[in-house]
TrEMBL record:
<dbReference type="InterPro" id="IPR003607">
    <property type="entry name" value="HD/PDEase_dom"/>
</dbReference>
<dbReference type="Pfam" id="PF13487">
    <property type="entry name" value="HD_5"/>
</dbReference>
<protein>
    <submittedName>
        <fullName>HD-GYP domain-containing protein (C-di-GMP phosphodiesterase class II)</fullName>
    </submittedName>
</protein>
<feature type="domain" description="HD-GYP">
    <location>
        <begin position="104"/>
        <end position="309"/>
    </location>
</feature>
<dbReference type="InterPro" id="IPR037522">
    <property type="entry name" value="HD_GYP_dom"/>
</dbReference>
């Protein structure tokens, strides 16, 4: 398979990975032939990249951080939990979902098990979903990334569960923000921005009332927009004033948000997002935490379609952990636009004169 921008898709190509709805169910499945109607509909749903079948790359499959089954279960748990909490009266000062903590700890335990089985492979987050699914898929992605950082820091099981449950529900306050405001494409007014920023305190108020949920998990909702230099919100905390769980969740949140399509901007590529995070070291985020995080992220995920400085189009076929910006690539189109008679590979670690100039 290969990953390409939807503008590069030609009618007749077939999906190699499914498109997911907000509850995690499949909207379009593997093998579906794309026609103009499907392509236009996917664009309207905010989808900008797709994985499609290609005879030159049919053996390439990005290593998933977690299995499809685990992701489906996690998305469903977040979806149902947020729906239940949204329908409750939060001001009564009581736990409105007494089994919530146990269920989410179980779900995050399955995420951890998948991540640990995966080993040291650099992370690809490859699920493709509609914009309506962003909140739930994003929460699961943040939990995956946070869990990986927690493991790298040597956290014990209790710490990992506190961090993981906090990451799954860190954005629960967003359920109180009007949908039209979340999807607004223009510049936010000061009043609109204040409404959105209130999701941190709203989320904390919701989670702190759950009797089987750690208060430290609730702080992930409260503090994930605080920043290392004190420029964040809601309280302008800085450095060690921000709980480390919230620092981890805030970093994972930023990376996944940057690499996801949003109504007000295009997505960043993984390499662009990593550049942003390094530039934000010791301003938005602790630089040591940034370095630890980026050690586990694939700069050019397998199946990414790229243009080389030679004019060739290629697909990333393997990553190199010792030279993350220099993957092995498989050429699928020559500079004159023709396909090679047989696919062949270039190891950019060895071919130092050849550069990746852009992702397609």
């Amino acid at each position: 398979m290969k990953k390409v921008n939807i503008h590069q898709i030609k009618p007749g190509e077939r999906l190699a990975k499914p498109i997911l709805q907000d509850n995690g169910n499949v909207l379009l499945g593997v093998g579906v032939e794309l026609n103009e109607r499907f392509i236009d509909r996917l664009r309207n749903l905010g989808i900008d990249i797709l994985f499609v079948e290609d005879s030159f790359t049919d053996d390439l499959e990005p290593p998933e951080a977690i299995s499809d089954k685990t992701r489906q279960k996690a998305v469903d748990a977040v979806y149902q939990t947020m729906a239940n909490l949204k329908d409750q009266n939060f001001m009564k000062g009581r736990a409105v979902a007494p089994e919530m903590g146990r269920q989410l700890r179980q779900v995050f335990g399955e995420i951890l098990n998948d991540v640990m089985v995966r080993g040291d492979v650099m992370v690809n987050l490859t699920s493709i979903h509609t914009t309506d699914a962003y909140l739930f898929q994003h929460s699961v992605n943040v939990a995956i990334l946070s869990g990986i950082i927690g493991i790298a820091k040597g956290y014990n099981r209790i710490q990992l569960e506190e961090l993981g449950v906090g990451a799954l529900l860190f954005d629960v306050g967003m359920t109180k923000v009007p949908k039209e405001l979340l999807n607004k494409q223009g510049t936010l007014t000061d009043q609109e921005r204040a409404i959105i920023e209130r999701h941190t305190t709203d989320g904390f108020d919701i989670l702190r009332k759950q009797h089987d949920l750690s208060l430290l998990s609730a702080h992930c909702a409260l503090q994930h927009h605080e920043r290392f230099d004190g420029s964040g919100y809601p309280r302008g905390l800085k450095r060690d004033e921000i709980h480390l769980y919230a620092q981890i969740v805030g970093l994972a949140d930023t990376y996944d948000a940057l690499t996801s399509p949003r109504p007000h901007r295009k997505r960043y590529t993984p390499s662009e997002a990593i550049e942003f995070l390094f530039a934000a070291g010791n301003t938005y985020f602790d630089f040591e935490l940034v370095k630890l995080f980026c050690k586990h992220i694939s700069v050019y995920p397998i199946a990414t379609t790229v243009r080389l400085s030679t004019g060739q189009i290629a697909v990333v076929s393997a990553n190199n952990s010792l030279a993350v910006h220099r993957p092995k690539v498989r050429v699928v189109e020559e500079p004159d636009g023709t396909r090679p008679s047989n696919p062949y590979e270039i190891d950019l670690k060895n071919e130092v004169s050849i550069l990746i100039v852009e992702e397609l």
